[in-house]
Design goal:
7 strands, alpha/beta, seven-stranded mixed beta sheet, Rossmann fold, globular
């Protein structure tokens, strides 16, 4: 009997991975509240050579819509780590947007605590207040459907066409509520730095997580940190995919994780 493939457990956690050229760096991406791996599909045309886009599919959405939605952060992080251990052999970065930034940060902390496990070469947090910064608005936790839908539409997180599919919308709102409750209640007393570099991204017009709320992420690393402001509101990774990925790639190059820029052929 042969040993199981160590990458097999990650099959359900990574969906629609995509790479250009010879693989040098893996980018594991965590979406916003209620989001699926499809949140990063618009990045594909702008992916540079040598990078693998590896969108993570969390339970209760996308291809895993029939699974229970996680209701707490720690069990989610533990399950996620168990699912992607086989992917952590290549140099990799973690990118998380909004709720996904909270998960990516806690996942980085968890990985760095375990001896023998390769840690990320960088943590990229996007559209998320720093963990010690208060929410700064009335929480959405406990909101009825009308208020939650209005907030999602206002922040660009709900395409209008989804309103025509009530069953899908119901499932989406359930996942959004669970993720938002985790994100809104997440508050640290003080920064707890990770060892890898941290790059924070903010939308210039984001009113959910303003650039001023994102900037203090710089205190969450003992390594170099930077902040980039990109065009768009809270949903800028989807509404401005080229500008977002261009900024991400520029920071990866600045950190020496990618070589000099070359034009893609074909």
């Amino acid at each position: 009997m042969t040993a199981p493939d160590p990458v097999t457990p990650a099959a359900r956690w990574i969906n629609a991975r995509y790479a250009v050229g010879q693989l040098r760096l893996r980018m594991l991406c965590l979406p916003h509240a209620g989001g699926s791996s499809a949140a990063f599909s618009g990045w594909r045309p702008y992916l540079p050579e040598g990078v693998e886009l590896a969108p993570l599919e969390l339970p209760g959405r996308g291809s895993r819509i029939d699974e229970p939605v996680p209701g707490a952060l720690e069990p989610l992080v533990e399950a996620l780590l168990d699912g992607i251990r086989g992917e952590l052999t290549l140099p990799y970065v973690l990118f998380g947007h909004s709720f996904g930034a909270v998960v990516a940060y806690e996942l980085t902390r968890r990985i760095e605590r375990e001896d023998g496990l390769q840690a990320p070469v960088a943590l990229l947090v996007s559209g998320s207040r720093a963990p010690h910064v208060p929410l700064g608005r009335e929480p959405l936790t406990g909101s009825d459907d009308t208020r939650l839908v209005a907030w999602l539409r206002g922040s660009g997180g709900l395409p209008e066409q989804l309103l025509e599919f009530p069953d899908f919308l119901r499932d989406l709102l359930y996942a959004v509520r669970a993720d938002l409750e985790i994100a809104e209640r997440y508050l640290l007393d003080r920064p707890a730095p990770v060892r890898c570099p941290v790059v924070a991204f903010a939308g210039a017009d984001d009113e959910v997580s303003t650039p001023a709320q994102v900037e203090p992420w710089g205190a969450y690393t003992s390594a170099p940190s930077r902040m980039r402001v990109v065009p768009g509101g809270h949903s800028y990774p989807q509404s401005h995919p080229e500008a977002t990925l261009t900024a991400v790639v520029a920071e990866l190059r600045r950190l020496g994780l990618l070589g000099a820029q070359r034009d893609r052929q074909g």
